[in-house]
Design a protein that fits this description.
It is a single chain. By secondary structure, the chain is α+β, with helices and mostly antiparallel strands. Helix content is 31%, strand content 41%. Strands 1-2-3-4-5 form a five-stranded mixed β-sheet. This is UPF0102 protein F0A16_03630.
Length: 122
């Protein structure tokens, strides 16, 4: 069984791989692992005029469901709260969206499923 430190390291590697993959899709990385009171944003990227807050979810296999299915309404609220904090802290006012990247497989053979505008701020 993986230790918490190993899981955290794997999570960071998967997030970095997702960021590189999104860059090949035309997005630009602005920041990663942004912590705010009550939440964290895995990746913050720019897609044209849009600032994109990206949640990365990984499962080795999808036998028990797609990784994106693990993002509950409560998790969405925490991400939105963290995004609002980020926007306020950086004095930003721009179009935003919330994307999810579901990642399956094991390093280095990962598959990415990008869901644009996966949920809205409310």
């Amino acid at each position: 069984m993986a230790t918490p430190a190993n899981r955290r390291q794997l999570g960071q590697q998967v997030e970095q791989a997702a960021a590189r993959w999104l860059e090949t899709q035309g997005l630009a990385l602005i920041a990663s692992n942004q912590h705010a009171k009550g939440g964290e944003i895995d990746l913050i990227m720019r897609d044209g005029e849009n600032l994109v807050f990206v949640e990365v979810r990984h499962r080795r296999r999808s036998d028990y469901g797609h990784p994106a299915e693990t993002i509950t309404p409560a998790k969405q609220r925490r991400i939105v709260k963290a995004a609002r904090f980020y926007l306020h802290a950086h004095g930003l006012s721009c179009p935003c969206r919330f994307d999810v990247v579901g990642v399956t497989g094991s390093l280095p053979a990962l598959e990415f499923d990008w869901i644009r505008a996966a949920f809205d701020a409310y």
